[in-house]
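This is your field. Pick holes in the following sequence-structure pair:
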Amino acid sequence: MDNILYVTSDKPEQPIISSQVLPLLNAIKDYSITLAMIESNKNKKINYKNLKFFKSIYSLSKYILMNAKNYKIIHFRSYVPFAILWPFLIFSKSKIIFDVRGVMPEEVINQKKTLKSFLIFMYLKISEPILVHFSNFIVVVSRPFKEYLISKYGKRNQEKIKVISTFSNKKKDFNAIDFLEEIKKEKIIISYCGSLTKWQKFDDVLNLYIELQNLFNTTHLLVLTPDISLAKKKLSQKLNKKDFSVLFVKNQELIDYLSYSNLGLLLRDENLINNVSAPIKVKDYLNAEVPILASSKIGDTDYYFKKYNLGFSLESDDFRQELIKNKEIIRNLMNKDKAKFDDFYKRESSLEISIKKYLKLYGALL
């Protein structure tokens, strides 16, 4: 068995660990992989055999420096702590995988406009070309992300940049949900899943839904969110209570609830962060066999919609005109072609696809 160190600065309580990291690592049986991460502040336990917890990025970084020689591959999930350690690791014999899950420099400066965030932004931007250069493989989550890195750092890096997107569960056993069964008999169910943080554009989602309601008349909005109170407050200001449902469901139940939907909504601002992203909710919708109405230029969504005909991209914020113009296209999407969803899952969205791609990378380096 070959030793691989998989490094993440995420903590156990962060959803990405349970939805992406653990399913992937628990499914890979061909190699011995040690997961190194920051310990939880909430005593959150995780189910993984080869696990090392650290109190801080500093202690995690120290461990990597002291033990790099024991691992044939160091797989960094995101910029940190790779951006801290690269001056030392360039002398290491370990192979490096730089698994870039997003444009972290831009994400940092976009969250807070402070001196500290600016300094972190500058350091990460200065480090980025070095991380790209010294990595044996670079993993990105979307085709536009690969194009972005090639445009910045040249075609000489093209062969080592690999696209491995997010994955999601697919609906297997049908679990009936009584209140949705009743609603679906009479209404078109349109869904939104996610938090109500500013960048999710929930106010715009609500405006888009109202235009859909005006267009198709008999509709019901299903909102699956951890921000229940705020969602109810916003919805009550614009909709009748009988026209919406708000609840929070566990990740393993999400597909069951979404599968009742005729259409899912996803809106983002057009910027670099969103242009190269791979929102997990895209896979959640499509794996639940729910076509999507989304902003254009969100990672691979335009590509998915064009290749598999599973959604429609909105090119402007003039929702009314776009919906009126494309009413029949959207109506046809809501008819759902199961074969197309199955094809998408098999080719783009399953855990098995991600496993196969990572095994290929590990095999090439060992």
About this structure: The CA atoms of residues 314 and 322 lie 7 Å apart. The mean pLDDT is 94. The longest strand covers residues 32-38.
